[in-house]
Amino acid sequence: MKKISIVSLTSVSAVLLSLGLSTATTFADASTTPEASTSTAVITFDPNSGSTDPLNPDDPNKPQDPNNPSDPADPDNPGTGNKGPLSLDYVSNIVFGTHEVNGSEETFNAINRNPYVQVSDTRANADGWNLTAAMTTPFTGADGKSKLAGTVMNWKNGTIKAPSANANPAPTATDIALDADGTAVTMLNADATKGQGTWLDVFEGGSQDLATENTNISLTVPGGQATAQKYQAEITWTLSNAPK
Fold it and tell me: What are the C-alpha distances in Å from 229 to residues 25, 112, 142, 159, 213?
């Protein structure tokens, strides 16, 4: 008869313990998830306290070249020099040329090449802004007393431009008519979250040799107002942080 021996686990353990051997089984550490830590990187920008240079209306990626002005009708305009995080950087001086006295109402076009206005907003919060213009001093003669009553200066078909790196939403441009009564009208408006960075409103037209008139800026003079002398008006531009 074949003899079968049955040995219990308890018996085996007792034997091992009597021999001073351990019955514990050793397993490898099952944890394979690495520990993670974090660090920080910080950069701080202070508000812009300087002025922003005028840009070239033909290519806003380039600055104006004082040795090669883009507008020969306004060659010595260095810009406003206004400083701060919200600034009006540049406004063109408009020239309507020389004409003979005529007793009838006439409309004269500017001879400026691509005149423009430029606004920069580098504030931390995009609260929006508004740019207005007003003819605060009507066209007054060199004699200091003659005025061109009832004149209206029109700016139309402005083109919004910006450097290619500026991907922010653009402000809204509006055609304006400036009356001799000094009423302020909005040319550019940026609602909240719009108009950050540098923006140009360019009234494209005219030519480098002043031979072509710019029909986007014009002056209408009523009949019987002009006498043979030079007239000059003053336009006041107001940039505010209160969008319309």
Answer: 112, 21, 6, 34, 21
